[in-house]
UniProtKB/TrEMBL annotation:
One of its GO terms (molecular function) is purine nucleobase transmembrane transporter activity. Pfam families: Xan_ur_permease (PF00860). The lineage of its organism: Bacteria, Bacillati, Bacillota, Bacilli, Lactobacillales. It is a multi-pass membrane protein. Its main location: membrane. It is found in: Cell membrane. One of its GO terms (cellular component) is plasma membrane. Belongs to the nucleobase:cation symporter-2 (NCS2) (TC 2.A.40) family. Azg-like subfamily. The keyword Transport applies. The chain crosses the membrane at residues 12-36, 42-61, 68-88, 94-112, 124-148, 154-180, 187-206, 236-258, 311-332, 339-358, 408-427. Keywords: Cell membrane, Membrane, Transmembrane, Transmembrane helix, Transport. This is Guanine hypoxanthine permease PbuG.
Length: 430
């Protein structure tokens, strides 16, 4: 701590700040995965346990002030693209997560993740992060009733005569105002405020009690392993590839950004990044066995870093606080879709900010980036958005006379996505 110019008190405060900033995932993750048919109580427990493990691994393996928990982009892809979009039962889809986790861990051990991450153009990395952000925001707008389906225009403005829609609007404004005031834990505070308003107005039914033992994990525990025979379906391997790619970019981009904020970067490289990626991989593997989607390094860790977090003690503190959170599962009944929707919308805003790093003045870059970003919400499928970008980038760069700027890995990715598009479109219809 002396080398990082920090103190125990400062690290503990940073850990508390990070926890408050990301505690919303305890309720948002069950809400998103619940839409796929999973047991919300079990998902709540698994979310907390995975976060605990992820934070402890990041603390002791990498000694970074970065928290790890199930990622919003990954659970959105699981529910809306795989389960609801492709029609794959959640039990089988979880088997895909398990296989992806094993491959992820192997790739991390062999340092392949670092090689591939370095080979992907930064513009496409930023486009993927931005696209996932807009997709998540779209899911939030839909869940909150602000955007609804329309036969004529596909989507339309939701009705403002629905009381619960105003609960979402209230939550968005509370979080937005708090974040504009730079108050730590704005998302969590907004979630709590919306819940209280919902209870006071009768829009949300009050729970019979507020504390209890954590719900059983039996509905999700080991389901991924039991459904491994489903991997005989070629369509499942498309799911595995996309989970690998999404997790690749999500954690890597966040780690680098947070390391820069904390002043950890040295010579434009992140020390111990291999250990950090291994911590993420192992927590992802454990989560897939217990029953949740891939983990990610949380951008909300920036709140803890902003108040002085510099070492693994920050992540350790966050993990310990997640242990205590296991006692508050009854609150799941009051944290409705309209309450969690503002969190999705605001996180979408934060992720979409990555667009500012894209070189829009270069047409050969702008087109793949644009197709990646709009492809996700407009097709309601994260995998299609990523595919659009990787299919067009090498071709347009070559057309622009910049073939030398396209490395071999990008050409390999082009071939991978051609096969992926075939699996996603041709096989399900045959």
């Amino acid at each position: 701590m002396s080398e990082q110019r920090t103190t125990v008190r400062q690290e503990l405060l940073a850990g508390l700040t990070t926890f408050i900033s990301m505690a919303y995932i305890l309720f948002v993750n069950p809400s998103v995965l619940g839409a796929a048919g999973m047991d919300k109580g079990a998902v709540f427990t698994v979310t907390a346990l995975t976060a605990i493990l992820g934070c402890l691994l990041m603390a002791f393996l990498a000694n970074y002030p970065i928290a790890v928990a199930p990622g919003l982009g990954d659970n959105a892809f699981f529910t809306y693209s795989v389960v609801l979009g492709m029609g794959i039962p959640w039990e089988k889809a979880m088997a895909g997560v398990f296989v992806a986790s094993i491959l992820f861990t192997i790739l991390s051990f062999l340092k392949v993740r670092e090689i591939v991450i370095d080979a992907i153009p930064s513009d496409l990395k930023m486009a993927i992060a931005s696209g996932i952000g807009i997709f998540i925001a779209f899911v939030g707008l839909q869940g909150g009733g602000l955007v609804v389906a329309n036969k004529s225009t596909l989507v339309a403005m939701g009705s403002l005569t629905v009381p619960t829609t105003w609960l979402t609007i209230f939550g968005v404004f509370v979080i937005a105002v708090l974040m504009a005031m730079r108050i730590p834990g704005s998302i969590f505070i907004g979630l709590v405020a919306s819940t209280i308003v919902g209870l006071l107005t009768g829009l949300i039914k009050a729970p019979t009690h507020f504390m209890s033992l954590a719900p059983s994990m039996d509905p999700t525990m080991g389901v991924s392993i039991k459904n491994l025979p489903a991997m005989a379906d070629p369509q499942m391997w498309a799911v595995v590839v996309i989970f690998l790619l999404v997790a690749f970019f999500d954690t890597a981009g966040t780690l680098i950004g947070l390391a820069q904020q904390a002043g950890i970067m040295k010579n434009n490289k992140m020390p111990r990044i291999g250990r950090a990626l291994m911590a993420d991989s192992l927590s992802m593997l454990a989560g897939s066995v217990m029953g949740t989607t891939p983990t990610a390094a949380y951008v909300e860790s920036s709140a803890g870093i902003a108040v002085g977090g510099r070492t693994g003690l920050t992540a350790l503190t966050t993990g310990v606080l997640f242990i205590f959170s296991l006692l508050f599962s009854p609150l799941l009944t009051v944290v409705t879709t309209q309450v969690t929707a503002p969190a999705l919308i605001i996180v979408g805003v934060l992720m979409a900010s990555s667009m500012r790093h894209i070189h829009w003045d270069k047409f050969e870059i702008a087109v793949p980036a644009f197709l990646t970003i709009v492809g996700m919400p407009l097709t309601y499928n994260i995998s299609y958005g990523i595919a659009f970008g990787f299919l067009t980038y090498p071709i347009l760069m070559t057309a622009a006379g910049r073939r030398k700027d396209v490395n071999l890995i990008m050409w390999i990715m082009l071939a991978v996505f051609i096969g992926l598009m075939y699996i996603l479109n041709v096989i399900p219809k045959s």
